[in-house]
Amino acid sequence: MKYGYPEPPWTYSPNEVNEWINAVYGGHTCTRCSVKKEKRWLKNVEIDIDLNVEREVKKPSTIIMKAIASITGHEQVEEHFELIPTAHIIMRALAKAGFKKAVITLGEHTIQRERIRHAIEDMVHAAKDGRAREIKIRAENEGTAEVIIRTLHSKKHHSIEIKMSRIMEKNFQQFLIYIRKRLQGEEQIR
């Protein structure tokens, strides 16, 4: 007994729990109740991810361009990571979050599929040349998700930018868990 109250039981049998609740809070009887589970929706979610990879600042060729770029924040940064595997991870996370349809823009190739998993396979076949520096993904279900993955971007932008118009909170948590396990980087959620 601590402070005049019995310790909470470490075994969770209903009898012991009721005895503990009655001792702490007074008379209590369990009655059936109905709990309405509501789906909580998140709206206008923005995630910016900077991967922990080697970065190289691309310097402009002239002094005037260099001054303008540093003042406006448009200095070009090239990050050294594989574009296709990163897009693959993001698309699998979108599939886990419940998004179904996908439109992928990879350079001049546009891939449109009813299922994200099929779009992943087609994206790998379209990216044989390996010269792409940017991939745009638009996934749809009950809301839309727009993803832009860049290896070359200005300092004001991030290497991965994700915007979701509407997503259930449970699915958003699954999305974040999947990404955090597979991508190492700093993220900002707004």
Rounded Rg = 25 Å
**Main sheet attributes: strand count, strand direction, barrel closure:** 7 strands, antiparallel
On the 0-100 scale, what is the average pLDDT? 82
Number of strands: 10
What best-fitting shape do the alpha-carbon axes yield? Answer: elongated
Q: What is the CATH class designation of the largest domain?
A: Alpha Beta
Weakly predicted, low-confidence segments: none
Number of separate structural domains: 2
Helix content: 25-40%
Strand order of the largest sheet: 5-4-6-7-9-1-10
Structure description:
With 190 residues, the protein is α+β, with helices and mostly antiparallel strands. It folds into 2 domains: 1-33, no CATH class; 41-189, S-adenosylmethionine decarboxylase (4-Layer Sandwich). The chain contains 5 helices and 10 strands; from the N terminus they run H-E-E-H-E-H-E-E-H-E-E-E-E-H-E. It has a 7-stranded antiparallel beta sheet. It has a 3-stranded antiparallel beta sheet with strand order 2-3-8, with no helix packed on it. Helix 3 (83-96) runs antiparallel to helix 4 (116-126) and helix 3 packs antiparallel against helix 5.
